[in-house]
Write a structure and sequence with these properties.
Blueprint (H helix, E strand, L loop, with lengths): L16 H17 L15 E4 L1 H4 L15 H13 L2 H4 L3 E3 L26 H10 L3 E7 L15 H11 L3 E5 L6 H18 L4 E4 L1 H5 L7 H7 L2 E3 L8 H13 L1 H4 L8 E3 L12 H13 L4 E3 L8 H7 L2 H7 L8 E5 L3 E7 L5 E7 L7 E6 L12 E8 L3 E7 L3 E6 L4 E7 L16
Parallel strand pairs: 1-2, 1-8, 2-3, 3-4, 4-5, 5-6, 6-7
Antiparallel strand pairs: 9-10, 10-11, 11-16, 12-15, 13-14, 13-16
Helix pairs in contact: 3-5, 6-7, 12-13, 12-14
This protein binds alpha-D-galactopyranose.
């Protein structure tokens, strides 16, 4: 059930009863004053995985002309079928999410949101039941303001009613957009009110926000606060099916990493937007880059593509178990860029067990594959390979790269706009005497 969990605190022993009572009082006061650190609804302990219709299917509402591509219950039922038959569910992709344009243009007589009757004739509860019968979860979309971005009814003034409606339908995730939000105060209050309303339904509903994206032009977002209300949140522009868009999102994320990376963790994640792998705009190497870097950034992995016709290469990349394992690493730390020049970038993400995921990105868009050389001493603040570490390449192909030490120079060949995704591992056996890095003076 989606309820705020009170923080557990350890009681201390005291001499007299009065001292004990005073201590208890102080502890209670401290607990009451201390804000929760994350939206403790027990959900999104790891970045959610799934599928979202927006980037690929946009707002196609003409099912007469585009029966195969319009936003309809048929599209979601077919996607649910394929998610099961083609191994997506088993790879971890769990949430099947509806974006904008599912609604009828007006609310019903009781003021409730309703789906377009032509495109969703069976209603959302039936669709949710179907999705659940496949072992998947259903996500839906609404907007904090007066209208959604595509002009359908917004939730402003109806947060409680809409949360209750979604819960009664059996919805498992809400993407809450921020178009037409009104004033900054209304934006912030709206996101908080919807969080509380979802919590009060008692149903487990993952809450995806775009609060910081809409707040940033007016005021610097307070991520500590945002994490208390949202399970993940968009910070930046919509992703497009192009290398330009992926580069732009990566540059923004690196530029703002001091503000956004630390706060991410179980229960609350930064969302750099959908994976567009398997569409039209990215080369094979650029798709590898998106997958690798979204894993490094501990991003929700929400694909927006056509799973009914995706090519085997894109499917293998999206279902790569080791990359998904990096994305889902239980330590839950978001990665960050540690080195960049105009030719290449190095990103790292600390993993549980003392290892690191490393992304070596070739930013040079001319010429052929580049050999990129770096010292292992810069990984993990000097700790990743001290005194030694195993390095394994995960993407674009799996390769063992052997045992390295803190003084190794490391070389890797990377195609233009591609990425080598590596993983360091701490060796199990003890290092031989004399191989530890001398302390720095
Ligand atoms: C905004 C969001 C997108 C998508 C569209 C739908 O642009 O950022 O992700 O939901 O609205 O209209």
């Amino acid at each position: 059930m989606a309820q705020q969990q009170p923080e557990r605190r350890r009681g201390g022993g005291g001499g007299g009863l009065a001292l004990l009572l005073l201590l208890l009082l102080l502890l209670l006061l401290a607990a009451a004053l201390r804000p929760a650190e994350a939206l403790e609804n027990g959900l999104a302990r790891r970045p959610p995985l799934g599928w979202l219709h927006w980037e690929r299917f946009l707002c196609q509402t003409d099912c007469a002309r585009e029966p195969h591509r319009c936003v309809s219950e048929q599209l979601f039922m077919q996607m649910a079928d394929v998610m099961v038959s083609e191994g997506w569910r088993d790879a971890g992709y769990e949430y099947l999410c509806i974006d904008d344009c599912w609604m009828a243009p007006t609310r019903d007589k009781q003021g409730r949101l309703q789906p377009d009757p032509k495109r969703f004739p069976s209603g959302i509860s039936k669709l949710a039941a179907y999705v659940h019968s496949k072992g998947l979860k259903l996500g839906i979309y609404a907007d904090v303001g007066s209208k959604t971005c595509a002009g359908f009814p917004g939730s402003k003034g109806n947060y409680k009613l809409d949360a209750d409606t979604f819960a009664s339908w059996g919805v498992d995730l809400l993407k809450f957009d921020g178009c037409n939000f009104g004033t900054l105060a209304q934006l912030v209050k709206g996101y908080k009110d919807m969080s509380r309303a979802l919590n009060e339904t008692g149903r487990s509903i993952v809450y995806s926000c775009e609060w910081p994206l809409y707040q940033r032009p007016l005021q610097k977002p307070n991520y500590t606060e945002i994490k208390q209300y949202c399970n993940y949140w968009r910070n930046y522009e919509d992703v497009y099916d192009s290398w330009c868009s992926i580069k732009d999102i990566l540059d923004w994320s690196a530029l703002h990493q001091d503000d956004i990376a630390e706060i991410a963790g179980p229960g609350g994640w930064n969302d750099p937007d959908m994976l567009v792998i398997g569409n039209f705009g990215l080369s094979r190497d650029q798709q590898v880059t998106q997958m690798a870097l979204w894993a490094i950034m501990a991003a929700p992995l929400l694909m927006s593509n056509d799973l009914r016709s995706i090519c085997p290469q894109a499917k293998a990349l999206l279902q790569n178990k080791e990359v998904i394992a990096i994305n889902q690493d239980p330590l839950g730390k978001q990665g960050y860029r540690i080195l960049a020049d105009h030719k290449f970038e190095l990103w790292e993400r600390p993993l549980s067990g003392g290892g690191y995921a490393i992304a070596v990105l070739n930013r040079q868009e001319m010429g052929g594959p580049q050999t990129i050389t770096f010292s292992t001493a810069i990984l993990g603040n000097g700790l990743a390979c001290n005194p030694t570490c195993w390095i394994q390449q995960i993407l674009p192909t799996k390769r063992e790269l052997g045992l390295h030490n803190w003084a190794s120079a490391f070389k890797v060949l990377v195609n233009p706009t591609g990425t080598a995704l590596l993983k360091t591992k701490v060796p199990e056996e003890k290092p031989a005497a004399g191989t530890r890095r001398p302390p720095e003076h």
